[in-house]
Specification:
alpha+beta; 3 helices; 6 strands; 15% helix; globular
């Protein structure tokens, strides 16, 4: 399991302008991608968050620490809009600050890996190939190609109270891939 890096909000300036790992409604093709990310990113690449599990939520998923992997996309903000994007995502994810009791998610830094060529990843095309359409544009930090070295990224994980509820009565998504349009699993829904 990867260790969390805690940064204060005051310390989240340019030194912490990390890419974001997204795994739910912010994925390409999902409704919040167009609302929050279109025109604000220079790069989007399939990626994997090791040491995490994915749970079904009420229209969106939750990632929690665990023995598994969550598939998603690493996004890089357009230079000059990082602060705006960070604020928009914090608001969307109901993140009010580190360990705030009303947080739905906690924003933490985790190490994200890239899938090895030939293995499908979230955000891959119909053929299962990751493609090169998510290459970084000029002026932004370059996102490594598949199979390259892991990178640090901001990830929104379920807050402590949500995590406790998920671990006791949540519905695990076994393959760690969020797919909308699937029928809801039977049983109790998560908070």
């Amino acid at each position: 399991m990867t260790a969390a890096v805690s940064l204060t909000e005051a310390g989240a300036g340019s030194a912490a302008e990390l890419p974001f790992f997204v795994y739910g409604t912010l994925l390409p093709g999902e409704p919040n991608h167009d609302l929050f990310l279109r025109g604000r990113t220079t790069g989007e690449r399939p990626a994997v968050l090791p040491g995490a599990l994915l749970y079904d939520g009420p229209g969106y998923p939750y990632a929690v620490e665990g023995h598994g992997a969550v598939h998603g996309t690493l996004i890089t903000a357009v230079p000059g809009v990082y602060g705006e994007l960070l604020g928009l995502l914090d608001h969307l994810e109901e993140y009010l600050g580190p360990d705030h009791p009303r947080n739905l998610y906690e924003r933490v830094i985790r190490t994200v890996e890239f899938p090895v060529a030939g293995f499908p990843a979230a955000g891959a095309g119909e053929s299962g190939e990751s493609g090169e359409s998510g290459e970084s544009g000029a002026g932004g930090p370059e996102v490594p190609a598949a199979g390259e070295q892991p990178v640090r990224a901001w990830v929104y994980l379920a807050a402590a109270a949500v995590t406790r509820s998920l671990r006791t009565s949540g519905i695990l998504i076994p393959d760690g891939r969020w797919i909308t349009g699937r029928p809801p699993p039977p049983g109790r829904r998560t908070p």
